Amino acid sequence: xxxxxxxxxxxxxxxxxxxxxxxxxxxxxxxxxxxxxxxxxxxxxxxxxxxxxxxxxxxxxxxxxxxxxxxxxxxxxxxxxxxxxxxxxxxxxxxxxxxxxxxxxxxxxxxxxxxxxxxxxxxxxxxxxxxxxxxxxxxxxxxxxxxxxxxxxxxxxxxxxxxxxxxxxxxxxxxxxxxxxxxxxxxxxxxxxxxxxxxxxxxxxxxxxxxxxxxxxxxxxxxxxxxxxxxxxxxxxxxxxxxxxxxxxxxxxxxxxxxxxxxxxxxxxxxxxxxxxxxxxxxxxxxxxxxxxxxxxxxxxxxxxxxxxxxxxxxxxxxxxxxxxxxxxxxxxxxxxxxxxxxxxxxxxxxxxxxxxxxxxxxxxxxxxx
Length: 370
What we know:
The chain is mainly beta. The protein folds into 3 domains: 3-34, no CATH class; 61-108 and 139-219, Jelly Rolls, CATH 2.60.120.380; 238-367, Jelly Rolls (Sandwich). Helix content is 9%, strand content 37%. The protein contains 5 helices and 19 strands. It has helices at residues 9-17, 28-34, 122-127, 158-163, 227-232; strands at 50-51, 58-59, 61-69, 90-94, 98-106, 144-151, 168-169, 178-185, 188-196, 203-211, 215-219, 237-247, 268-272, 279-287, 296-304, 323-330, 333-340, 343-351, 358-368. The chain is globular. One of its GO terms (biological process) is proteolysis. GO terms for molecular function: calcium-dependent cysteine-type endopeptidase activity. Residues 61-218, 237-370 form the Peptidase C2 calpain domain. It comes from Urocolius indicus (Red-faced mousebird).
């Protein structure tokens, strides 16, 4: 624009030489006339991992879980309300001193959900005067905040914990699509509580945690009331880890144990700490595809000598699995609940036939005895 004629040609040449693809210079007065907010995103490296804006460290570990604020049940409002402890609560386990970024991303408010997350009928929405066509800013987003407390692994008093100052939290609740906090956390267990400012304000959200060190994230759930579900997933607190992988032709798609190439399948370590008895573990294998394109999938759990064990050609000739989720099923998801003694294990997911490609997620839920 005309602004370039008002500065030294040498300075203008230097500024223009710094421009990368997609970048441009804007006059300061014009910028403040057109924009009233700046959002800075974390850079992403070539491997698709976030890089800290503050230290340039790579946040190579990540976990995420969905949640919701439900009126009368889990929409407790901010800390000014006595109902604050009813908000959704999450366990964050930090395994080593880490730089951690916790982000709360709320979904655009279009529908309300019941206790099970089912969308309610549109007649009910009309009665609640919830518009499906309103704009987003300030109307479809709640004022949200995020607070974190450090707790002991043993039993603790929830009201007493939440009445104490958090170790970190957002400065205030804000009408933003996403709020986040970045901090250094020492090893241990942390209680993460996302909340809306107003009590009974409903909404759905995604809680994401990025870290330089190993972490796990799990939701504190009340005991299930359905008897059949109790047998499938016993009541209590569960620590959940999500692991992503893929089967690639000629590299990591070894097929089932019927084939000599089984050892090239992805291998995920699982460590069960020493305790008074066996640990309850639920392993779920979920493939990423449409129902009509499901491959037959299954998995095996093997006990191994130590956590650094790696499979090779003859590894499974005389090694029998301690847990098997077979036969392979044409299903989006297969799972197995089991009891494991303290020790080192590996989880090996597979398709039935070798060289069958696909992406998948392994979810390992371990019951926490407090």
